[in-house]
Write a structure and sequence with these properties.
Elements lengths: L4 E3 L4 H10 L4 E3 L11 H16 L6 E11 L2 E3 L5 H11 L2 E13 L2 E13 L4 H10 L19 E5 L2 H5 L3 H10 L11 E3 L2
Length: 197
């Protein structure tokens, strides 16, 4: 069975990741205001809200929605508002383990699969000159925790436990299993297209 897949996200990283397992999908940016994130469970609630917002426009599609956050000692480190806050986030992560959680919601005609996926990441001790080097060149303001593991911050990560793709924003192993459970099968003929709204 081939199902039309819709990604409920404006994130270019999620588009890139989804394309690795779903060759053909559409993008619909959800009209949804995220609330304040206090806990990992709030990420799942946000993903559910994104899915429902897109479901109203795409009643027959298989919808994929996600929200990702970084937590250290139970504190959520969101997207920094400026480079000074990004530096503080990175200082908080330096020399320690933290958790990256993604709330994932997949929906098709009343059937849903939800998951809260955790990946543990250890950042080695960071010197101030390393933070200077990183922040001078990396666009960090749209990245939870102030870093992107697929960019220069890869040099800072010395251990990881769990799904690497989850740290980028979409846990592919969990997503793939959920899509298969809902009857999705690959279709290599149609290109990915984007659509806002």
């Amino acid at each position: 069975m081939t199902q039309r897949v819709v990604l409920a996200s404006s994130s270019p990283r999620r588009r890139e990741l989804l394309r690795r397992i779903v060759p053909a999908f559409q993008v619909v940016v959800p009209d949804f205001e995220e609330g304040t994130i206090h806990s990992p469970e709030d990420l799942l609630e946000a993903a559910r809200g994104k899915m429902q917002a897109v479901r109203r426009k795409e009643p027959a599609a298989l919808i994929v929605a996600a929200d990702t956050g970084v937590f250290v000692d139970g504190q959520h480190l969101g997207k920094p508002t400026d480079t000074a806050e990004a530096r503080e986030h990175l200082r908080a992560l330096s020399g320690r383990w933290h958790s990256v959680f993604t709330g994932l919601c997949i929906s098709l005609s009343g059937a849903e699969r939800e998951a809260l996926v955790e990946t543990r990441v250890r950042v080695r001790e960071l010197r101030e000159e390393e933070l200077d080097w990183y922040l001078a060149d990396e666009d960090v303001l749209d990245k939870a925790g102030g870093y992107a593991i697929q960019g220069k911050a890869a040099a800072f990560v010395d251990r990881i436990e769990g799904d690497y793709a989850n740290v980028m924003g979409l846990p592919l192993a969990t997503l793939y299993s959920a899509l298969r459970e809902l009857g999705w099968r690959p279709d290599r003929e149609r290109p990915c297209v984007g659509r806002g709204g």
